[in-house]
Amino acid sequence: MNLENNKYFNFKNKIVLITGSNGIIGNELCNFFLELGAIVFGIDSKEKSVKNSKYTHFKGSVANDRFIFNKLSLIIKKHSKIDIILNCAAISIFSHFEKRTKKEIDQTINVNLIGTHNVIKNYVKLHTKKKLQSSRIINFGSIYGTNSPDFRIYGNNDRFNSEIYGASKASIIQLTKYLGVMYIKKKIFINCISPGGTIVSKNKISKRFYTKYSSRTPIGRMATPKDLFTAIIYLSNSETKYTVGQNIVVDGGLTVW
Ligand SMILES: NC(=O)c1ccc[n+]([C@@H]2O[C@H](COP(=O)([O-])OP(=O)(O)OC[C@H]3O[C@@H](n4cnc5c(N)ncnc54)[C@H](O)[C@@H]3O)[C@@H](O)[C@H]2O)c1
What is the pLDDT of residue 3? Predict the structure, then answer.
């Protein structure tokens, strides 16, 4: 099959913006869309990590209203559109609830909720002002936006899973529903993906945690970013025209039993 000319799988020259582009998922998504022939823009609070002539990096915070407006305007000025926005930028807090500080709450909400809110708000304003065509926005929730962690996995080890991270991700799932309904008339398709535990390599995390987490999933392992690609392709595909405000869970079945 010639995928390049197949309307169900054509990402060539699509304009893609990925926030959190330095992260383990964001980085792989940048390379994935570049491989598919897309023109990719990344936003991250860290310096550029993707090396490709079709990749442009903007260093800054998703929570900065002016910065986001300026960068979205710049992309639209150059390409007259943004086809796909992937809101990956987020922070995680791994300390215990009883030790939670106001600063940690503010930081988490500022990046995870306000950051995503900010990108969508500024995009929608520009989409309306410039009368842009259809676009796809994919937010990043988490299984911990809908389910509690199983504390037998996490215990008090190095990856204690925090309540404030889960609460911020629950807000993303709800934001997706609200804005998905609100903006479908403008042909902005807003959906969410909620991954389970996703790692680059099991060698990079504690063996005890990996084994415990894996035994909790029916599929018997943690995810790698590649496990998310097919769901991302589905949600960012211009031929996906009847899926609105949904939360697609990709977790190896962890939340099913
Ligand atoms: N990896 C997982 O196990 C997992 C599971 C469920 C959901 N998720 C979600 O998937 C998304 C990507 O996860 P990841 O594992 O790649 O995370 P990550 O921590 O590896 O990457 C997040 C990126 O966001 C950037 N960032 C942080 N604050 C920012 C800000 N204010 N402005 C711009 N960039 C900022 C960081 O520099 C980092 O590069 C996140 O939304 C995360 O919550 C991840």
Answer: 61
